[in-house]
Design goal:
This protein has 188 residues and is an alpha+beta fold. The chain has helices at 16-23, 66-77, 96-103, 131-140, 150-165, 172-177; strands at residues 2-10, 33-34, 56-63, 85-89, 93-94, 121-123, 126-130. The protein has 6 helices and 7 strands; from the N terminus they run βαββαββαββααα. The chain has a 4-stranded antiparallel beta sheet, covered by helices on one side. The mean pLDDT is 87.
């Protein structure tokens, strides 16, 4: 089983009550999903946090596929009242292991010699690289590297569609005519 790292976007910044529910939810007890909670009174601070950053959950999930990993967190986040997943993305900063996972090939030492991007930072012996620079290097070297992995694209579009349909009164026949399969989810 692989570990997948991604950022899940939720519909709103967590409130203190939601953070408390999150912290006490068994689904998140392993620490594989984390959040940033803004200050209770942001107006009291000269530098206010970016509200968009407060809607991001950092995820490191073990699952057979990236799509399975995103689906698990998207399902579990609904256990916190008022929260739902609305999108997903990759961060640009990666380790070599994460870059290898994204491109589906080993990035061995000899392969990284000729013009391979230099690390952007290091911490505790771990080097961090720009995924965009690595993908561009792989493309120049003749490798086919998708801009976004198919699983990430599917998950992001599905979450965005689910968000757009939240509370909308769209007849199932219309969704079917648009080419969407019948959506039958249990446990919602």
């Amino acid at each position: 089983m692989s570990e997948w790292s991604f950022t899940l976007l939720v519909n709103q910044p967590l409130t203190p009550e939601q953070a408390d529910a999150f912290d006490h939810c068994d689904a998140f007890a392993d620490g594989s999903v984390s959040y940033t909670l803004g200050p209770e009174h942001p107006e009291d601070y000269p530098h206010r946090p970016d509200p968009d950053k407060l809607r991001e959950l950092s995820c490191d999930i073990e699952a057979p596929t990236l799509l399975d990993a995103v689906a698990r967190v998207a399902r579990d986040i609904r256990l916190v009242p008022g929260l739902r997943a609305v999108g997903v993305r990759y961060d640009d900063t990666v380790t070599l292991a994460e870059a290898a996972q994204r491109c589906g090939r080993e990035l061995s030492e000899p392969a990284r010699r000729h013009g391979f991007p230099a690390p952007e930072a290091s911490s505790g012996g771990t080097e961090f690289y720009s995924w965009r620079e690595i993908a561009a290097w792989l493309t120049r070297a003749g490798h086919d590297v998708p801009e976004e992995p198919r699983d990430l694209l599917i998950a992001d579009r599905a979450l965005r569609l689910a968000d757009a349909l939240e509370g909308a009164d769209v007849p199932p026949g219309t969704l079917c005519s648009l080419g969407l399969p019948r959506l039958q989810c249990s446990g919602r």
